[in-house]
Amino acid sequence: MQHVLAGLLTVVQPANMLAIIVGVFIGMVFGMVPGLSGVTAVSLLVPFTYGMSPITGILLMVGVYCAATYGGSITAILFNIPGDVMAAATAMDGYPLTRKGEARRALSMAIYASCVGGLFGTLVLATVAPQFVKVALAFGSPEYFALAVLGLTVVASLGMGSTLKALLSAAFGLLLATVGLCPVSGVSRFTFGQVMLQAGISFIPAIIGLFAISEVLSRMYDREIQTPHDPEALREARRFSVPSISDIRHTRWTIARSSIIGTVVGMLPGAGATIAAFLGYGIAQRSSDKPETFGQGNILGVAAPESANNAAVGGAMVPLLTLGIPGSASTAVILAVFILHGLRPGPLLFIRFPVFTYAIFVGMFVANLVMLFMAIALVRYLVRVLVVRYEVLSMVILAFCIVGAFAINNRLVDVWVALFCGAVGFFAKKYGYSPAAIVLGLVLGPIAEDGFINGMTITGGDLWAFLSRPLTATILGLALLSLAFPAWVEWRRRKAIPRRTNSA
Amino acid sequence: MKLLDELLKKCRPHGDLLVAIVLLFSFALLRIFSKSLIAAAIRKGQWIHHGPEFWPNTILTFGLFLCAILVISLLRKPAERSAEAEIGATSVELMRMLKVAIFLVAYALAIPRIGFIPATTVGGVFYLLALGERRPLVFAGLPLVVSVLILVIFTRILVVPLPRGTGIFRLWSFFLY
User: Do B62 and B121 share a structural domain?
Assistant: First the structure.
């Protein structure tokens, strides 16, 4: 309890509170505008954390992460254009509510559900993480290798689209991670004689390229470059308010269930808020008395995905803080901030810096509350950003992308890395590959390689000895299951189609 | 432009296959030449279990295997791919995207030569004009505001040494940061 109080005292310091407020504001704007995202926001903000203390920098990131997850729902509800893919499920019922003239009701429910989901996820994080640390202390190199494999297989199997392409994306990310000096032997690999490449490919410039630059390129290649804003919906947003008591009562069990789903899904390395949102929506529909009303403006269809995707934020912080393994692109950037400030997330962080870790928990709690009040007060003004021409907005984004990529290590080669990854990200998005899997491959690559090579040394080169360790075997089994299960479902589905056709 | 539109329409159905083939060749070439690309100075038997080439080679073999499956599966489903041909970007969107891509490369090339601030200010004006912005306050004012913002945040607050360029640009930059 004294750690919680000490964490609270850290968070309420003016600089830290300001970081949370600024982070929530930026996160909300980036989450809301289609073509920007939470990952873009956190990656562009990394250089800004240089001048801050480690906790202030992390709290800024946490504020952005929490608010960006919610921000996407605003445009999803008002214009049927999710600001971020995480809000795609919210659009399914949010937009029909706007069409019915109930945009205000949908918007207030979205922020309420997001706040409750976010608070629940944070509570679980604060309760589970310290317990999980005890298990994590028993982890050795083979277990870390197995966890990296699990992260990559989960992102591939649960990704939206082709599993094969997602796996290929992960392999591409793993390959990018091998550029530079080998972490075990110090031998240079794939540097093509370039001294600048010996330090490897930094993942912040790569993330800036894969998520921000590629997004601008994709948007420029899009026929509908401007966000089509309906003036009527914008007028509705000006009268933003709190949800009614009857709506709160009606949605309470859906929000509770979706928050649990979101937290659990968020904890899986590789899964994330998008999957949590769709799962929350799907289960809410299946357990509803009137499933046919979903998709036509059911308020439960807004409450379920919003509470699930915000709860996933707390869940996603569990593997990051306890094991140092990021489960999503945003948490990968947060990991980079830890490393930039000389900290390494993992079990030892809890033992050496307990106040620091509890300040993060309290900070996330506060960020969700700030998000609630800021949404009620500011959404009416924030939506005006949507009338700015995207060409104009893109100039500002690209300038910050380039300076952000450069400022990480003060190297121009990082600018070229960002541009290369921007081109890769553009083609990846266009042809159904997964930029998130590329990032996870890039981040988890060194962890997997270190774990594997060190594990082989421990076991005397015996690969089967990996499986004799119960934890490693369990995690690798889960990884196999995460790949096999969707394949089995797909096989069953394909088998059922001809049968149905024959019977018809 | 009409010709480009026709070409885009014709090529679009094969885009997926083309990307898969490029990936296949990239993985194959890297796998073939991995020995020379991963320091040739490694002595045989130097490493007890696995040398520095083991991990990249495993990934390359895995990637190669996945690419092969993808190419085969795409070759077996030509009908699904052709359906995409009717929708998608036209030459207008392609040119707009290419303008941005060219700007980015030119911007990255200009930074070490003329410095960050002139590159951002001048480049920003050209960028906005090229994308059809005709309001003088926006196309001239916004790049200037962004440059000042970057200057203040990065050189004053974060103390990041932004590139100064060469020659006269370098001398001039000392007046600013």
Answer: no
